[in-house]
Each structure stands twice: as structure tokens, then as C-alpha cells.
Specification:
The chain contains 11 helices and no strands. It is mostly helical.
Length: about 375
């Protein structure tokens, strides 16, 4: 409660009295012969003005004590927030616009309120600054959660990129002395690896600019899916060394795809395109197995068969994703189809599941002051 000045009280009282003197009494008061109760014989401030002032000050002081009690519980939350901001900035990532300045005002506001001896305009301004910070933090809570998790996600992404390049280099070395030319295939795979790295660099740049939403979108939609596809392509090349095993791996992958279709059928989801892709895959696999029995078999032809099968696998994955756009819960239970022996990337839980919906009170009970 703000402190009411003597001048304001006098103005509130004297103004209507002056109007009475100039324009006469209000309707219904024409026969009034004396001053209202509580006033002295001459028109002026009420006799109990000092008492009113005292009560007003007491109410303000009680409000100030409530504020001070609230700021004690807020201090821990503010300290947590300071640590979160420092962690993000020390890692080289940007803080959403306005958060740092507003945090500084909130810290100053707590000091102002704690040092106040009576509730004045200064204390009111401090309370408003603190509440503005809570509002701003509510708006930016998910961004702060993303940025807080980003250093750990970056470590995982670093490992994925390094392992991807390592896996390709290993397969490339194993196939260096085969009797047919794989130069074009090697160049295509390296281009895929380079595209993964480029998306990774975009995600890091977005986080450094304080735009974690874009960073997470790139990681979720471009980076991790591309790693899975590239590893399958690397696995396809590796399978050239053992074509019989490759055929069995593809057959097992098609069985997995059929199970996914059966699961979607039970949910009433349109699977006609998925069934068509499976039919094409089975036909291509049959053609591949038939070609293997023809002697002499040119291993270079195997790359064409396996590359076509891998493309069909990608088509299947894309169609599953399209059908599950509005059914994330079901989508989280379906694993990617693998045609070749290749490890799929480990996607961080924050990207798989997102963050819980909350507000500023996620930081140890940070709430507005009243």
C-alpha cells in the first residue's frame, strides 16, 4: 500500500466542500443547518485526520512486512536463475532478449524491499520490477530449459558426428580393394556426412544466438534423422562384402515394416502407401536374390539393388512420419526400420519428449509479489 500524503488527504476533503460553497448543497441536503458529523465548527480537515493517517501508515507497513516475507522465499529461486543464466552464457549460448536485464532489476528489487522501512513509491516500483521479471520468465521458460539442456545435447551430437565419420571411413577402408569402382558411391556418402555436419553447425549457431527453438527444430527434424539415414547407407555399402547376409538383413527389415503396418491398421490409419512400398521392397529383394544365383554375378550390380532397397526403406519411414503427424504418442512407440546392420543414433530425451509445460515457478517457486 502506498503512503498517502497530508496534501492529498486535504485535497480530497476540501475540494467537495469548496464545490458545496459555490453551488449550494446537493439535492436532499437543503435543510442542513450545520457541518457534517466529525467536522469542527469551521469547514476544514476532519478532527480524526491524524488517526486516519496513522491507520494508513500501519496498513502500508503490514503490507511491507508481507512483501519482505515473500522476498525471502523468492531469493532461492532468483539464485537458481542466476546459476542457470551463468551456465548458459559460460557455455557460449545466448540468453533470450531482455532476460538478463530484467533479472538484474529483480535482484535490485529484492534488496530495495528488504531494506525499506515503510511502503513508499520506491517499494512499489521495486515490486513492479520483480513482477515484470516473473512475467518475462514465464514467456521464456521453455527457451531457458532448452538452453540449459543444450550443453549436454551438444556432447551427444558431437559423438554422433564423430562416430558417423569414423563408421564411413572404416567401411571405405574395407572396400578399398574390391574389384569394382565405388568412387561415386563413396562421394555420395561423404556428401551425406557433410550435410549432417552442416546441419549441426546451423543448430549450434542458433543456440549461440539465443534461439534454442530453431536449434532444437534443426536437431530433431534434420540432424538426427539424417544420421540414421546416412548410417543405413554406410551399412548398405558394408553389406557388399557379404551379399547373402545383406539379403537376410533386408528380409528382416521388411518383416519389421509389416509389423508397423499391422499396428497402424489397428488404429484405423491409412496404410495403403506403406503396403505398396513393402510390395515394391519384396519384389526388389526377390530380384536381388535371383541375381545372386546367376553365375558369374557382378558385385557392382549388388550396389544398385541394395541402393534401391535402401531408398524404399527411406520412403517407408517418410510415409510413416506423414501418417503420424497428428499422433505423436503412437509415433513414439514405433522404431525406425533397419535394412542393414547399422546402429541408429541416440536421440536425447529432451528432443524426443520435449519439456514439461510450466512457468517461472519451475525455478524453486518463483511467483509474483503481492
Amino acid at each position: 500500500m502506498k503512503k498517502i500524503s497530508m496534501a492529498l488527504l486535504i485535497a480530497l476533503i476540501v475540494t467537495p466542500i469548496a464545490a458545496f460553497a459555490q453551488f449550494g448543497p446537493p439535492a436532499g441536503f437543503e435543510n442542513m443547518t450545520g457541518p457534517p458529523a466529525g467536522y469542527s465548527g469551521t469547514m476544514g480537515p476532519p478532527a480524526n485526520l491524524e488517526e486516519l493517517m496513522q491507520k494508513g501508515q500501519e496498513m502500508g507497513n503490514k503490507g511491507l512486512q508481507r512483501l519482505k516475507s515473500s522476498t525471502k522465499s523468492m531469493q532461492k529461486a532468483i539464485t537458481q536463475m542466476q546459476k542457470a543464466v551463468k551456465k548458459v552464457t559460460d557455455a557460449g549460448y545466448g540468453i533470450p532478449a531482455g532476460v538478463e536485464d530484467s533479472l538484474a532489476k529483480a535482484i535490485a528489487a529484492i534488496d530495495t524491499i528488504n531494506n525499506a522501512t515503510e511502503f513508499t513509491d520506491t517499494a512499489q516500483t521495486a515490486m513492479d520490477d520483480f513482477n515484470d521479471f516473473v512475467d518475462l520468465l514465464d514467456t521464456n521458460m521453455e527457451n531457458m530449459q532448452m538452453l540449459g539442456a543444450f550443453p549436454r545435447i551438444k556432447k551427444q551430437a558431437d559423438r554422433e558426428v564423430a562416430n558417423l565419420q569414423k563408421a564411413f571411413d572404416k567401411v571405405k577402408s574395407k572396400l578399398a580393394n574390391v574389384e569394382f569402382d565405388l568412387t561415386g558411391e563413396f562421394a555420395d556418402v561423404q556428401a551425406q556426412v557433410d550435410a549432417v555436419k552442416a546441419n549441426y553447425d546451423k543448430a549450434i549457431a542458433a543456440a549461440q544466438a539465443g534461439d534454442p527453438q530453431s536449434a532444437f527444430d534443426i536437431l530433431e527434424n534434420d540432424f538426427f534423422p539424417a544420421i540414421g539415414d546416412t548410417r543405413q547407407t554406410i551399412g548398405m555399402l558394408d553389406a557388399v562384402k557379404n551379399l547373402t547376409r545383406a539379403s537376410k538383413q533386408v528380409a528382416a527389415g521388411i518383416k519389421s515394416a509389416e509389423k508397423i503396418v499391422a499396428k497402424l491398421d489397428k488404429k484405423g490409419i491409412d496404410t495403403s502407401k506403406l503396403k505398396d512400398i513393402i510390395a515394391q521392397s519384396n519384389a526388389q529383394l526377390d530380384a536381388f536374390n535371383a541375381a545372386l544365383k546367376i553365375k558369374p554375378f557382378d558385385p557392382a550390380d549388388a550396389v544398385d539393388y541394395l541402393d534401391t532397397l535402401n531408398g524404399l526403406r527411406e520412403d517407408f519411414e517418410n510415409e510413416v512420419e506423414n501418417q503420424l503427424t497428428d499422433n505423436e504418442e503412437l509415433g513414439s512407440t514405433i522404431k525406425p526400420v533397419k535394412f542393414f546392420n547399422a546402429q541408429m543414433p541416440t536421440v536425447p530425451k529432451e528432443i524426443r519428449n520435449g519439456f514439461p509445460q510450466g512457468g517461472a515457478n519451475d525455478f524453486g517457486g518463483l511467483e509474483k509479489l503481492e
